[in-house]
Amino acid sequence: MTAETNQPTGPMEGMITKAEVAKRLKKTRRTVEYWQKKGIIPYVKIGQSVLFNWPVVVKHLETHYGVNNSPSA
Asked: DSSP state, 9?
């Protein structure tokens, strides 16, 4: 952790839970689980725990699923 921010640094930085992914994507946890099963979003499983690297999830969705970041007309 950095002394100034008390934020973690290193390989686990950016890792979030399934509940947080669902919240950020405005979907249910069940939808996130379905997307995991179908390979739509990348995740890391360690034993019974599942974590998501948020920057990797965003990049994967942008690359493979045509996320449109342009403003609406």
From this structure: -
